[in-house]
Amino acid sequence: KAGVTQTPRYLIKTRGQQVTLSCSPISGHRSVSWYQQTPGQGLQFLFEYFSETQRNKGNFPGRFSGRQFSNSRSEMNVSTLELGDSALYLCASKRASGEQYFGPGTRLTVT
Amino acid sequence: GQQVMQIPQYQHVQEGEDFTTYCNSSTTLSNIQWYKQRPGGHPVFLIQLVKSGEVKKQKRLTFQFGEAKKNSSLHITATQTTDVGTYFCAKGGNTGNQFYFGTGTSLTVIP
Predict the structure, then answer these.
(1) Does the distance separating the beta carbons of A104 and B42 come in below 8 Å?
(2) Are the CB atoms for B22 and B82 separated by under 8 Å?
(3) How is B39-81 classified by DSSP, letter by letter?
(4) Which of A52, B63, B100, B104 has an alpha carbon 20 to 30 Å from B34's alpha carbon atom?
C-alpha cells in the first residue's frame, strides 16, 4: 500500500497570506488528523476528520480550518498567516484500531 | 490540560548501554501510543498499549503501561546507532479519536 502523501513538501509565504495544505491518506483509512510541530511547542493536535466530518478539534484559533472529501483526502487551510505559524504540518492517517501513520509533512515558513 | 510529560528531555548514551524514557499523566489514560521520529523525518508508530500493567516487546524495545494507567515507559536494551531519534508517547483524548503527544525524549547514541 502507498503511504500517506502530503503536498506541497515546502512552502514559503508572507505574513497575512493564506495557505492550503493537502493530505492523501492510506487507501481504506477514513480518519485523518493534522498536527503542527514546532521546536518550542512540540507536536500539537490540530483536528481530526472522519467521513468528511470534523470529529475533534485542538486548541488552535479559527484561522486554522480543514475539510475532508468523500475520497478521504483532506486539506487544511491557514488564513492570515503569522510568523508563529512557521512549522512542520503533519498529516496522519489512522486505522480503526488507532495506529496513526504519518506523512512526510509540509514545511511552512512564514516571512 | 492535555499535556503529557516525558522525561528525560535528552539522553546521551554509549552504544550498547540501555535507555529508558518515561511518560507521565495526571489523569488516567484510556490508551497510550509510542512513536519514533528520526532527525528530519516524521513520527513512525511503534506500539499501542491499552490494558493496565500491559508489557509488550519488540526485539530490543520493551513497552510498559502502568497499573494505574497513568504512566508508561519505553526501554531499549543495548542501544545501537540506528536507535537515534526522538521518542514520543501520545495519549488518547476523551473520544479516543484524537491524540496528544508528549514532549518527547531525544536519544543520541555515541558509537
Answers:
(1) yes
(2) no
(3) TTS--EEEEEE-STT-EEEETTEEEEE-TTSSEEEEEESS--G
(4) A52
